[in-house]
């Protein structure tokens, strides 16, 4: 049985602009999810490439934050992203990445409002990330993100504006658990409907990923977003 699986649905969007990727190197495995901002061919293609780059960078560095920062800085250094006018026409995405290695803690890093959760052996679901959006910063709209892959702000610049760094990270002690990465189109409809995401994380990773994404679309409002889920079983051994 595969230890991880991803599933996504397009919802009511014109394009599927979410993407997932995994990469393994020297016993280290990285799982990445990117939620593209906008619905165009360019955003769709860019997000697929970004997810792959992110997973590889994190696995090679054996650390989620180091990988995300490396990819973030590459995009931030692009000349057009330094231009206050041109930058907003370039593709971008919210991103979350998790890295596992035998006997080592789980590391997670993110920019934006894609989330990472773990389901413990005791059945408790815990969110590891804190959304980068205006709801967190000012109590405003959750649909206005305050950090993302493709931005050019440094940690200090982002803190001055939105009171959180451009990239945040967390380390979780090694334990047997089920990892969930989810785009906002996957977790928001279920939370809005007072559903417990843990209820959809049973069975194999492929079944859990499918069940959660399908349920998100079924419980969405009149305009369902892209719903993307990656589920992985993590062993502490």
UniProtKB/TrEMBL annotation:
Give its E.C. classification number: 3.1.3.16
Q: Offer an example of a GO molecular function term for this protein.
A: protein serine/threonine phosphatase activity
Keywords of the record, alphabetical order, are:
Hydrolase
Taxonomically, the superkingdom here is Bacteria
The residues covered by the PPM-type phosphatase domain are 3-234
Is Lipid metabolism included in the keywords of this UniProt record? no
Q: Which SMART domains match?
A: PP2C_SIG (SM00331), PP2Cc (SM00332)
Q: Which InterPro entries match?
A: PP2C, PPM-type-like_dom_sf, PPM-type_phosphatase-like_dom
Q: Does the keyword Phosphoprotein apply?
A: no
- Coiled-coil parts of chain: none
- Please identify the protein, giving its name as recorded: PP2C family protein-serine/threonine phosphatase
Write down the species: Streptomyces coerulescens
